[in-house]
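We were asked to recover a plausible sequence for a given structure. The inputs and outputs are reproduced exactly as logged, with field labels preserved.

PROBLEM: sequence recovery
POSITIONS: 250
GIVEN STRUCTURE:
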């Protein structure tokens, strides 16, 4: 049985504690547990403590690479884990763009997340697609700069979210077949470093303008292990429809 990972990335929403509470309450009431779906909700840091992650797992949207110390504004993996979260999104393109996160910083974050026992969800994806396929080189570099510093046993634990930047929040989702092709390419890149077994094992999610009407197209592609959802994860009813779609594909 294929087991999907569906991740809700709330980004910097909702604006109030009241709305966040309400959102969690709806999820906690309405989610029907399913063996074939691992649901991950990644709210902003201040709301992590509100969640009662029984029917879903909790994720953070970022982590710092040091254990503790004078790092104003940063949050450690241990803090995140201690609060009950099991996943952490790392290297989202919005952080790469607006916060200047580099490959080296992302690599250190992935390493620390693994050391702390968190499951890193590493985001990769090109800014644009050129006709000659040069964007594959870009994806390969993003994957290699993280994986070449991992140990073999760590490599299989990283989840990758393939999120082409042009598809995020644009209403222009990538075609399932193109995502599948990129997923295969990523697996091959990892297989070149760690061997075919690890390349095959790595789970690859898709993110970028996913909604209830297109989710099925991705989930039925054998190479795609799940979805990372931004905008449509902010409205519980819409998000639950996507979850239902994954559930129905058991
Ligand atoms: P989107 O965002 O679903 O709003 O396109 C996806 C993401 O950035 O994780």
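RECOVERED SEQUENCE:
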């Amino acid at each position: 049985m294929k087991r999907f990972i569906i991740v809700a990335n709330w980004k910097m929403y909702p604006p109030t504690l009241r709305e966040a509470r309400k959102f969690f309450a709806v999820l906690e009431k309405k989610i029907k547990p399913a063996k074939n779906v691992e649901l991950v909700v990644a709210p902003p840091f201040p709301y992590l403590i509100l969640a009662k992650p029984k029917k879903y797992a909790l994720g953070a949207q970022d982590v710092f690479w040091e254990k503790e110390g004078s790092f104003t504004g940063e949050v450690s993996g241990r803090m995140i884990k201690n609060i009950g979260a099991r996943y952490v999104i790392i290297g989202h393109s919005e952080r790469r763009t607006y916060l200047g996160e580099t490959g080296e910083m992302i690599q250190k974050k992935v390493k620390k997340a693994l050391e702390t026992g968190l499951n890193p969800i590493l985001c990769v994806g090109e800014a644009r697609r050129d006709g000659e396929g040069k964007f594959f080189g870009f994806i390969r570099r993003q994957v290699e700069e993280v994986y070449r510093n991992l140990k073999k046993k760590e490599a299989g634990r990283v989840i990758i979210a393939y999120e082409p930047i042009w598809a995020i929040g644009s209403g222009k989702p990538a075609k399932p077949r193109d995502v599948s092709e990129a997923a295969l390419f990523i697996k091959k890149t990892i297989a070149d470093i760690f061997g075919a077994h690890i390349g095959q094992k790595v789970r690859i999610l898709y993110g970028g303008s996913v909604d209830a009407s297109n989710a099925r197209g991705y989930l039925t592609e054998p190479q795609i292990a799940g979805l990372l959802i931004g905008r449509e994860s902010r409205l519980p009813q819409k998000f639950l429809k996507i979850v239902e779609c994954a559930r129905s594909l058991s």
